[in-house]
Amino acid sequence: MKAHDGMYIGGQWRPAAGPDTIAVVNPADEQVIAHVPAGTADDVDAAVRAAREAFPAWAATPPAERAARIAALRDVLVARKDEIAETVTAELGAPLALSRTVHAGVPVLVAGSYAELAASYSFEERIGNSTVLLEPVGVVGAITPWNYPLHQVVAKVAPALAAGCTVVLKPAEDTPLTAQLFAEAIHEAGLPAGVFNLVTGLGPVAGQALAAHEGVDLVSFTGSTAVGRQIGATAGAAVKRVAVELGGKSANVILPSADLAKAVSVGIANVMSNSGQTCSAWTRMLVHRNQYDEALALAAAAVAKYVPGERVGPLVNAKQQKRVRGYIEKGLAEGARLVAGGPEAPHETGYYVSPTVFADVTWDMTIAQEEIFGPVLSILKYEDEEDALRIANGTVYGLAGAVWAADEAEAVAFARRMDTGQVDINGGRFNPLAPFGGYKQSGVGRELGPHGLSEYLQTKSLQF
Ligand code: NAP
Ligand code: MG
Prior knowledge:
Layout: E1 6-9, E2 12-15, E3 21-26, E4 31-37, H1 41-60, H2 63-79, H3 81-92, H4 96-120, E5 124-127, E6 130-136, E7 139-143, H5 151-163, E8 166-170, H6 176-188, E9 196-198, H7 203-212, E10 218-222, H8 225-237, E11 241-245, E12 251-254, H9 260-272, E13 284-288, H10 292-303, H11 318-333, E14 337-340, E15 356-359, H12 366-369, E16 376-382, H13 385-392, E17 401-404, H14 408-416, E18 424-425, E19 443-444, H15 449-454, E20 457-463
Parallel strand pairs: 7-8, 7-10, 8-9, 10-11, 12-13, 12-17, 13-16, 15-16, 17-18
Antiparallel strand pairs: 1-2, 3-4, 5-6, 6-20, 11-19, 14-15
Bound molecules: NADP nicotinamide-adenine-dinucleotide phosphate and magnesium ion (MG).
């Protein structure tokens, strides 16, 4: 696979400060496909300087012109969508069909939405005798995970650029090639030098240096709760803006009046997609006790279609594979019953995990409380609606969820009582403009649409 051996800083590919590199591995066959430089604090410093230098001019660029550049970026992402899909498949392991539709497709929608928002957003408002100016926060340090290698980048960079901020990106060490492709797209789209900068590298080195850099005004992080906590603390100590999008343990609540077969099959598809490596996946399915056995039979039939190596890809790396298999063993040890799958790896080569469904899971088991981040679903039994609500809200997380009922109003009434940032009603469609983010320990801040844009703005009030 093609890779750059430098960093994209100040509008050009420059040699890295140090000699170290990171090997990029294809998780489907465990082969090394490329090497990228492992950035140091010096690379981060050069990138932050470039971003600072570019900031005043970009902040002063009329929103319509910023919009035109973001539209050009979207067009490059469209033109290079096959290359993007192949790169995501090579370094993440996602089946090519998923890489085309989701990994390459969704970023086009999100970039497009910010091209439109930059042009139409009101960066000034009138409140009584005041005019409130909405101004860019400054230099953004973006730290992204590997699960949606391009989407996670675009969901931060597009609103930041729309707002008039400049950016330094530290992508996940497992998926740097997609980030390099994105930097190429930025260049091709004609963004001014320094408006976007890329430093590949390891989290505790390059990521840490970026989060702590005093030239960074806002840190936007997506990833694990442990690292998010640390980044929040670092940013807090420096009185710096911070947004953290963390894990989830979302509930898929199937009310007794729902179309059970549809709710179960969509629920299985939701968890198995991207090998379960989705923070908003509905990893707990809640079924009324009278329908429990029927739901288990439906789930077993539905999950049989998810064959590892065909519809389901591997996990991103050996560490994640080990972690997820460990959770499956833990589920068995705590008394849950397997309906499908299990801890044995389905292939000798590649970081695959068997699509796994557990029955007889109680709300307090480890597999019902912790984010597993693999193709593992827990099916829980509830007695009545109050019990379902207690279970649904009974974790430290609150990122997403689903409710199914015959009557939309019945589902909405339940959704209103859920402590979570988004709920799909009877299998509602993805909306790239709807705010995405968590309640409770799922995070602070929102991404996407106008709410995502406002994260990158600060207010200045002029009184008359
Ligand atoms: P992670 O370590 O939190 O990685 C997220 C990003 O933060 C990566 O770019 C990472 O770099 C960087 N990072 C790591 N340590 C850092 C530090 N001390 N300072 C600054 N940046 C740092 O997540 P992970 O290890 O890849 O995955 C572990 C678990 O996190 C998963 O099993 C899952 O539960 C959760 N997760 C959640 C999401 C989500 O969308 N919310 C996404 C991915 C993972 P490196 O790539 O070098 O580590
Ligand atoms: Mg990590």
